[in-house]
From TrEMBL, chain A:
Coiled coil: none annotated. It comes from the Bacteria. This is L(+)-tartrate dehydratase subunit beta. Keywords: Lyase. Gene3D superfamilies: Fe-S hydro-lyase, tartrate dehydratase beta-type, catalytic domain. It catalyses: (2R,3R)-tartrate = oxaloacetate + H2O. The keyword Hydrolase does not apply. The gene is ttdB. It comes from Denitromonas ohlonensis.
From TrEMBL, chain B:
Belongs to the class-I fumarase family. Coiled coil: none annotated. Tetramer of two alpha and two beta subunits. PANTHER family: FUMARATE HYDRATASE-RELATED (PTHR30389), L(+)-TARTRATE DEHYDRATASE SUBUNIT ALPHA (PTHR30389:SF19). It comes from Denitromonas halophila. It is an enzyme of class 4 (lyase). Keywords: 4Fe-4S, Iron, Iron-sulfur, Lyase, Metal-binding. The keyword 4Fe-4S applies. Its cofactor is iron-sulfur cluster. This is L(+)-tartrate dehydratase subunit alpha. It catalyses: (2R,3R)-tartrate = oxaloacetate + H2O. The gene is ttdA. Its EC number is 4.2.1.32.
Amino acid sequence: MTKKILTTPIKSEDLESLNVGDTVYLTGHLVTCRDVAHRRLIEQKRELPVDLKGGAIFHAGPIVRKKDDGKFEMVSIGPTTSMRMEKFEREFIKETGVKLIVGKGGMGPETTAGCQEHKAVHAIFPGGCAVLAATLVEEIERAEWQDLGMPETLWVNRVREFGPLIISIDTKGNNLIEQNKASFNAKKQPVIDRIKRQVGFIK
Amino acid sequence: MQRETEITALTDVMAKFTSYIGKRLPNDVKDKLAELRTFETNPLAKTIYMSMADNQDAADKLDRPSCQDTGVIQYFIKAGARFPLLGELEDILRNATLGATQMGPLRHNAVETFDEKNTGTNTGSKIPWLDWEIVPDDDSALIDVYMAGGGCTLPGKATVLMPGEGYEGVTDFVFDVITSRGVNACPPLLVGIGVSTSVETAARLSKRAILREVGSHNPNENAAKMEQLLEEGLNEIGIGPQGLTGKNSVMGVNIESSARHPSTIGVAVSTGCWAHRRGKIRINADLSYEIISHKGAVL
Ligand code: SF4
């Protein structure tokens, strides 16, 4: 099985054939961007210090170490819950032209609509795999908005075959996590009923 | 002076052990994840299990905490009444947490409630959290260390059912918690259930339940049967690693219980994520120690 690799800058055509559940990897630049960065752009109308057109963002707050030569080293970088950015993401995609959003867990209908309108995707990086992710960062090239503190700084990472990234929202309006939730709920009741028939311990 | 040296030595051991368990999973969890990976047939789920294994290898090699969320530190202590440093243990464990925070390094996860300030040390009012049981006629201490991450703590829930709702109501409660809130807690989960008399007794037992080994069984026949039924039933839903569907949902279901008031059924659920970072260590009266959870561990 050959790895499907996306390279920044990502074009709409690169994403149109992707479906939810596909696994891809990213080579190029991946910028950490979470709560406050979203808020500054959308609510406070401030310009982002990084051009994200065709770019990729990561909902993550990393642990970074400053080396003796003044450069930064990525120690640990795990995804944070993407749903917190749901409120802003549709507009964020529109404003920035970002093409790939990486995080943990699913996102809601607003982001799904944004992805469909502007041909972008949301992908899940497995939670708890923060050291693996750190080893896939080749170099931290820049650090913007450092006034936000380590978790919220926009860390511009050069990455090579960063993944696995599981497409959870594609460009066609599909949302994997919503589909999964519906399937879990559909399967649940018969299982519960069967167990209940066997646990009548109170006679 | 002798006593001072002993205190320093035990603090050092517990600091190192606390830091250690943030980097390496206990044997039972590691084995279970390997088993789930082997039997998984869904290619996407298999890929995720592989990433988890790669991550643990990298954490071990690079000596870094395997998940960035190193949790709130909790110690569950079963101390012999004649354990020589019984009265000093609380201070020792607090200092061990401070030490581990430097050593790990651990993320700063202690926020003073109402002041809403992060203490920056992983210590604060009643944190690290200590849970005590005193064992009469014993001079050793058995300590479970647990890193309670945010994601895996969030699904936690407790309630009191009417007896008429019975164990059928317990079943409903568990399924509801796991399918609604457990999906985002980095499955496959270790599900701990407390069945008891009130919310706080059930909640405490549910936490004790996830400290029990994966694959162990409740000694009571009915409880063990319920563990198995719930485990099979949850697996049938196929939540899979990270909630992305797969052959299984959980690493296991452990139930702990106590007697209860005839008019109540207290029930609680606690969950441990796939990166279930806990460790068990026995400290003997001469302060020699034995690490039970991680075979061959060197501090
Ligand atoms: S749920 Fe567990 S593995 Fe997932 S991010 Fe939280 S602590 Fe890490």
